[in-house]
TrEMBL record:
Gene3D superfamilies: Ribonuclease Inhibitor. This is Leucine-rich repeat-containing N-terminal plant-type domain-containing protein. SUPFAM superfamilies: L domain-like. Coiled coil: none annotated.
Length: 153
């Protein structure tokens, strides 16, 4: 009986599409919920790191992240030259970025992005998008499908 109590308090029980993280880096904020974080959101973060050959020990170390009920809601990954963004330049976004269907704010300024992947139009909850000071040739017509987007810089 005591073992069951301790095992439930030491290890959170997550839904099948979520993974429990016992410790989070200081750049991660949890607004609501516990540290059971979406596997899909983590895969996209990992893809972003991989495609740009960035050096992070964990996807949770990328930029400044805010999570709400286990889903990534805000990501600050601008290349500002300080600790609030990324420590290296982002050149491209992964095709699976459209899986961030709960993200509300995305800060990607001061990188070297030249295009947005087609799946970008699947970011249905995106409200604010910061893309200034990149090398974008075209943001594409599909950005018009982002019905909740009210701020684009």
């Amino acid at each position: 009986m005591i073992f069951i109590f301790f095992s439930r308090t030491l290890f959170a029980q997550c839904d099948s599409a979520y993974t429990y993280y016992p410790a989070l880096p200081l750049n991660v904020t949890i607004l609501s919920g516990d540290t059971c974080l979406s596997d899909n959101d983590m895969v996209v973060l990992d893809s972003l790191i991989s495609i740009n050959d960035l050096t992070y020990g964990s996807p949770l170390e990328l930029g400044t992240q805010t999570w709400f009920n286990g889903r990534l809601r805000f990501l600050v990954s601008g290349n500002y030259g300080n600790s609030s963004g990324v420590n290296d330049t982002i050149y491209s976004l992964p095709d699976n970025i459209g899986n961030w269907d709960n993200i509300a704010s995305l800060y990607l300024e001061w990188n070297r992005l030249s295009e947005l992947p087609g799946s970008f139009s699947h970011l249905s909850d995106l409200m604010t998008l910061y893309l200034n000071n990149n090398v974008l040739q075209d943001i594409g017509d599909s950005i018009g499908n982002l019905d909740n987007l009210y701020f684009l810089d």
